[in-house]
Amino acid sequence: MAQIICRDLTLGYETGVVAEHVSFTVQEGDYLCIVGENGSGKSTLMKTILGLTPPMGGTIETGDGLRSTEIGYLPQQTLVQRDFPASVREIVQSGCQARCGLRPFYNKEEKLLAEKAMKRMGIFSMKDRCYRELSGGQQQRVLLARAFLAARKILLLDEPVSGLDPIAAAEMYQLIRELHNEGLSIIMISHDLGASVQDASHVLHIGKKVFFGTRDEYLNSSIGRYYMAAEEVQA
Q1: Would the CA dihedral through 179, 25, 9, 231 be positive or negative?
Q2: Which residues lie below 8 Å from residue 27, measured CB to CB, with a gap of 6+?
Q3: Residue 103 belongs to what domain range?
Q4: 147 is a domain residue
Q5: Region at 210 (left for phi over 0; alpha for psi -120 to 50; beta for the rest)
Q6: Who wins on pLDDT, 57 or 85?
Q7: Which of 5, 27, 34, 90 is surrounded by the most beta carbons within 10 Å?
Q8: Rounded to an integer, what is the distance from CA 25 to the centroid of its chain?
Q9: What's the burial of 1, exposed, middle or buried (CB within 10 Å: 0-12/13-18/19+)?
Q10: Is the separation of the CB atoms in 157 and 184 below 8 Å?
Q11: Is 144 a member of any domain?
């Protein structure tokens, strides 16, 4: 069943349009990889899906009874966020805020869910450490645990391996793969085309040209072959 349906989206801000004619569908259990050139509107699209930025044109519909409180989001980190002076436990538990409603505290069940998420991501032993003291890979695991708590149906990831060394990046991809195999729909932005599309069921390429289709259709398309070849040259 379709969870998100985007039709002929125009993306941008007051300063101008960044992408046009973007159409795609996310079915339950899909793994959608969003790729494209820098500045092509990938992060803007994700913010539009989340309702943080209104589309300049086109429509976004939700199905399968999807609610905003069932979507987890791991954004790109800023330098300020990397220096956030909170404990790992506090940051992960904040993923339960949508469950709390108007309650100003976390109940026993939510604290238990946070503990399970930390164990799931291999960071439970760090629960009392300050977030800003962690390595980049450890910080991403903390943020993934937080997003996982909020994601009851869909997990949105914006460049989840950005700035990570190859080992930490491979570990992050493995965690995402496991979450998808457990039933979560995944929407992931990545500049790492070769690694990111390995697990994808579908690919959305935005830029001067827009492509949406299955992973195999993308890899066999002219635009897919061009960008895969370009990445191999850069490597």
Answers
A1: positive
A2: 1, 2, 3, 185
A3: 84-152
A4: yes
A5: beta
A6: 57
A7: 34
A8: 16
A9: exposed
A10: no
A11: yes
CB 153 within 8 A of CB 161: no
50 touches 79 (CB < 8 A): no
Q: What is the pLDDT of residue 93?
A: 92
Which amino acid, residue 11? L
Question: What number is the average pLDDT over the span 140-169?
Answer: 92
Tokens of 175: 């965690």
Sign of CA dihedral 112, 116, 118, 123: positive
CA angle, 175 then 181 then 184, to 5°: 85
Which residue is it, tokens 């946070």? 114
Q: For 190-231, how does the pLDDT look when each residue is reduced to its tens digit (9 = 90+)?
A: 888 888 888 999 999 998 889 999 999 999 999 999 888 877
Q: What is the pLDDT of residues 149-162, one digit of tens each?
A: 989 899 999 999 88
**Main-chain dihedrals φ then ψ at residue 48, nearest 5 degrees:** -70, -40
Neighbours of 15 (CB within 10 A): 6
CA dist 136 and 214 (Å) reads 32
Q: What pTM was estimated for this model as a whole?
A: 0.90
pLDDT tens-digit map of 102-121: 677 788 988 999 999 999 99
Residue 33 scores a pLDDT above 80: yes
User: Is residue 206 in some structural domain?
Assistant: no
Contact criterion met (CB below 8 Å) for 131 and 88: yes
In a domain, 48, yes or no: no
